[in-house]
Amino acid sequence: MSARASPVSDVAIADGGSGDLDAVIEVMNAAFDERFGEGWTRSQCAGILPMPGVRMVVARFADGLAAGFSLYRTLGPEAELLLLAVAPEFQRRGVGRTLLDHFLDNARQSGATKVHLEVRDGNPAVQMYRGAGFRLQGRRRKYYRGRFGGEFDALTLSRQL
To answer: Which one, of 103, 148, 155, lies nearest residue 124 by Cα?
Structure first.
């Protein structure tokens, strides 16, 4: 992937589907260090896509290069952000916040009044989530199991819309 100077200004968010899984997995594998066990497999992503209320969106440049994606589920008054990843070369440039804002807007438009997510304790994205109004609800001890045997806590965060 080639780096760009200002991705947020020329990235577009569009609905994704099974045809986007190669790009999504590439972003996820680059963004999530395997030692933490946060990433999903291709079959996990493909398996959840047809479920009710699930939506995947991809942040792409005009040339088709994927900068990031999010996967979320909205059911009734609640929505859950299942995954959000940005390729390392585009992190800290607004792509993640753009994807998060898209999730929040879509959840609101779908009738959700509360949103949830979980994130590994120590993941730098915790700052972004807190800046967007998410508050700590709990901790899941040893929730993530990394490839090399490490165990890491998950923080559960939520906010009202």
So the answer is: 155
Catalytic status, residue 80: no
Q: For the sheet containing 66-75, what is the strand order?
A: 11-16, 54-61, 66-75, 78-86, 114-120, 151-160, 135-145
Q: What is the pLDDT of residues 8-29, one digit of tens each?
A: 778 999 999 999 999 999 999 9
Structural domains in the chain (count): 1
Catalytic residue among 118, 143, 144, 151: 118
pTM metric for this prediction: 0.92
Find out whether 46 and 54 touch, Cβ atoms under 8 Å.
Answer: no
CATH number of the structural domain spanning residue 57:
3.40.630.30
89 is catalytic: no
Q: What is the pLDDT of residues 53-81, one digit of tens each?
A: 999 999 999 899 999 999 999 999 999 99
The tokens for 1 are 């992937």
The one catalytic residue among 72, 80, 129, 144: 129
